[in-house]
Amino acid sequence: MIEVEVKASVKDFTDVKKNLIKIGAIKIKNEHQRDVYYNAPHKDFVETDEALRIREIPENGENKVILTYKGAKMDDVSKTRKEIEVEVFDAENMGLILENLDFRSAATVKKDRDIYHLDEFIITLDTVYKVGKFVEIEIEAQENEDTSIPLKKIFETYKKLGIEEGFERRSYLELMEL
Amino acid sequence: MIEVEVKASVKDFTDVKKNLIKIGAIKIKNEHQRDVYYNAPHKDFVETDEALRIREIPENGENKVILTYKGAKMDDVSKTRKEIEVEVFDAENMGLILENLDFRSAATVKKDRDIYHLDEFIITLDTVYKVGKFVEIEIEAQENEDTSIPLKKIFETYKKLGIEEGFERRSYLELMEL
Description:
The structure is a homodimer. By secondary structure, the first copy, chain A, is an alpha+beta fold. Chain A has one domain (2-176): Hypothetical Protein Pfu-838710-001, CATH 2.40.320. In chain A, 23% of the residues lie in helices and 46% in strands. In chain A, a hairpin with a 2-residue loop joins β3 and β4 (62-70). Chain A is globular. The model of chain A has no long low-confidence stretch (mean pLDDT 94). Chain A binds chain B through residues 40-43, 50, 52, 67-69, 71, 82, 84-90, 93-94, 96-97, 100-102, and chain B through 40-43, 50, 52, 67, 69, 71, 82, 84-90, 93-94, 96-97, 100-102. Chains A, B: InterPro entries: Adenylyl_cyclase_CyaB (IPR008173), CYTH-like_dom_sf (IPR033469), CYTH_domain (IPR023577).
């Protein structure tokens, strides 16, 4: 699966939230996410622009845990990249397996995420601890699909939300390490 | 967790099954297991004596999937080693993540396993496709525990089962590749 995604830095969510309602977006849920990023023993993911992450989401007194691999970004304007996810039952043992395979935890990113749906888009409002506030618009595409059309639609949606600047290709991990 | 384990090659299970009943072992279940073993990009698990495996067990029309890391064997007489397991929801995506991290699937081992419990022991009767029939006796220990006592008990149990030879420290993966 390819994740076609554009992120923008914003000062606050007040206008964005009004505009989301105006264009018909539906708020699905709010999540707290705790992401631990790992680096590889045989190459530096900072250089290869890949990412490996264990995400924990507290949900009904339990933790939902997702292991995610992200490939390198595929164009110069967005964060479009290959993404593979698998849900796992236990963050601690998943982390121990990665560490025994010589992967090293590089950083932890914590955020609160409001998730909206609008047609085929997922729109998220992220408050990232020690980094700032961001809007992300995302759509899934097939591996060999032309991503220029979904990308154009994403930027049109940003315009409707009143956002025409502040686009950010760096990950929260990179922004946190500045 | 440390897996203290001894395996023995047998011609057939007839006498073993009789003796298992005689000493009070309880048959818990039968499983079909399909194990895909992976090798690492930064070292050769054949040399380091480690293992990384995705196990699929068909169960009630679904597949139970377990990712397992095994450390190097810790003594000269048994297969005692560190073992870390995590259940995952999807074997295909777990495999894709490993492959994108440059791990390579090395071999697939298929077997039918009868699982018995006897006190603190797990005793398994394995029919391994293209390899043969094996009895395994296993007990879990803590990471800093002296494993000589559980090992002694395991060999005493083998004696009660009428097995005093055929002990095998090589993995099914190694035996399959002979």
